[in-house]
Amino acid sequence: MGKLLEELKRRKIFRVAAVYAVVAWVLIQVADTVLPALQMPQWGVSFVSNLFILGFPIALILAWGYEITPGGIKPDTAILPTQAITNSTDRKLIYSILGFMILVAGIQVGDRFIGQSAQINAPAPQLVSSSGGVIRTKIDLGEMELTSVEHLFGNMDISPDGSLLV
After folding, report:
1. Which of 63, 69, 101, 159 could form a disulfide bond with 164, CB atoms 3.0-4.6 angstroms apart?
2. Cα dist. 145→91, 96, 141, 161 in Å?
3. In this structure, are residues 149 and 156 in contact, taking their beta carbons and an 8 Å threshold?
4. Which among 7, 24, 4 is positioned nearest to 101, based on CA atoms?
5. How far is Cα 135 from Cα 114, in angstroms, rounded to an integer?
6. CB of 140 within 8 A of CB of 165?
């Protein structure tokens, strides 16, 4: 078991797995945001997620069989341990990924807190006319399934076909 772990470390399998997971997560988040904005089908985000899940074992197999050297990508059996990328190059890669992760986390936090405060401060729609009379409004319930809204809104009801809230 110790030899297997040492071989996994030497071939940098754990590092490839971590980098792949982070990059896949970021790209899935981007797809989750961008695809609906582009009016792509709803299954698009699921497709992207499944694509990354299926690609994970392929990336690990390629990491096991190939090594990145200053001369390019070579099969693991064709290189000597001295030809592999040095620790200084590894550190540059680690720091660049760490910086990218901090940037993405900052964007996520900013979007979550700054974006919500703008929505909270938005004015509520007026449901009473200036003359004090009753006004009509239509609320699109989308795919919500409500059988009785009395406990939510008081003296209101849903039309028999379920398309209007009265």
Report:
1. 159
2. 53, 47, 8, 12
3. yes
4. 24
5. 34
6. no
Q: Measure CA 164 to chain center.
A: 35
SS3 state at 124: coil
Structure tokens at 91: 């550190």
Q: Where are the alpha helices (DSSP H) in 13-85?
A: 13-37, 43-65
CB 158 within 8 A of CB 164: yes
3-class SS letters over 105-140: HHHHHHHHHHHHHHHHCCCCCCCCCCCCCCCCCCCC
Q: Is the dihedral of CA 100, 105, 107, 108 positive or negative?
A: positive
Query: pTM of the entire structure?
Result: 0.48
Beta bridge partners of 67: 74
What's the CA gap between 15 and 35, in Å, rounded? 29
β-pairing, 66-69 vs 72-75, is: antiparallel
For 101-155, how does the pLDDT look when each residue is reduced to its tens digit (9 = 90+)? 888 888 888 887 776 655 555 555 555 555 656 666 666 656 655 555 445 556 6
Distance separating alpha carbons of residues 164 and 135, to the nearest angstrom: 14
State the burial class of residue 63 (Cβ atoms within 10 Å of its Cβ: 0-12, 13-18, 19+): buried
Distance, in Å, from the CA atom of 155 to the CA atom of 166, rounded to the nearest integer, reads 9
